[in-house]
């Protein structure tokens, strides 16, 4: 059976720690389901007509998502091929709770996870969707405890995925 997992992210390498912990937990439980992983971050499109007409998701991803993030989730995808069906990234551009609830329902989200650590890597226009996720009545969002040590020699690098 294929289920969909939403992970609130800021598209940093640290945010992939949530995915690693969720998949490790599912492996330990001998979960036989496959999952579509959906990384979601909020993005304020602004009020400019020009930006609303000519800005695409790929343009926005070029601004807020690094190549290291894409490489890192590919590594995780290769590590758990029996659990992951596909990984996609998306942005939530709304500003109301009911819009987010509709987004969750439309995307067919079965499970949702967010980090216990507040994001520090938000780019201009980007916002955290965790408050919307906590208030969403359609799904029970689960907080994943993540800790970022003060000094890690590989912090901010692709090797951090293997830690």
Describe this structure in words.
The chain is of the alpha/beta class and 163 residues long. 35% of the residues lie in helices and 23% in strands. The protein contains 6 helices and 6 strands. Strands 1, 2, 3, 4, 5 and 6 form a 6-stranded mixed beta sheet that branches. β1, α1 (16-28) and β2 form a beta-alpha-beta unit. The longest helix has 13 residues, at 16-28. The radius of gyration is 16 Å and the shape is globular. The two termini are 30 Å apart.
Write the layout of secondary structure elements.
Layout: E1 2-8, H1 16-28, E2 34-43, H2 49-54, H3 57-64, H4 67-79, E3 84-92, H5 97-107, E4 111-115, E5 126-127, H6 130-135, E6 141-144
Parallel strand pairs: 1-2, 1-4, 2-3, 4-6
Antiparallel strand pairs: 2-5
Features:
alpha/beta, 163 residues
What's this entry about, in short?
This protein is an alpha/beta fold and 163 residues long. It contains six helices and six strands.
Shape: globular
The number of strands is: 6
Poorly predicted regions: none
Kindly state the percentage of residues in helix.
25-40%
Secondary-structure element order, N to C:
EHEHHHEHEEHE
Cα radius of gyration in angstroms:
16 Å
Biggest sheet descriptor? 6 strands, mixed
Mean pLDDT: 87
Q: Whole-Å distance between the termini?
A: 30 Å
Say what oligomer this is: single chain
Beta fraction of the residues? Answer: 15-25%
Q: What structural category do the secondary elements indicate?
A: alpha/beta
Number of helices: 6
């Amino acid at each position: 059976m294929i289920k969909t997992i939403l992970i609130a992210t800021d598209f940093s390498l640290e945010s992939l720690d949530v995915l690693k912990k969720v998949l490790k937990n599912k492996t330990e439980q001998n979960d036989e389901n496959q999952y579509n992983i959906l990384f979601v971050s909020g993005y304020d499109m602004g009020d400019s007509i020009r930006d609303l007409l000519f800005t695409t998701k790929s343009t926005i991803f070029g601004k807020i998502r690094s190549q290291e993030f894409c490489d890192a989730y590919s590594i995780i995808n290769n590590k758990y091929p029996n659990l992951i069906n596909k990984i996609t990234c998306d942005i939530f551009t709304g500003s109301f709770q009911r819009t987010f609830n509709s987004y969750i329902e439309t995307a067919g989200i079965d499970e949702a996870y967010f980090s216990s650590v507040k994001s520090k890597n938000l780019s201009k226009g980007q916002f955290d969707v965790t408050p919307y996720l906590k208030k969403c009545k359609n799904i029970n969002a689960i907080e994943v405890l993540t800790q970022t040590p003060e000094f890690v020699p590989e912090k901010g690098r692709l090797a951090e995925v293997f830690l």
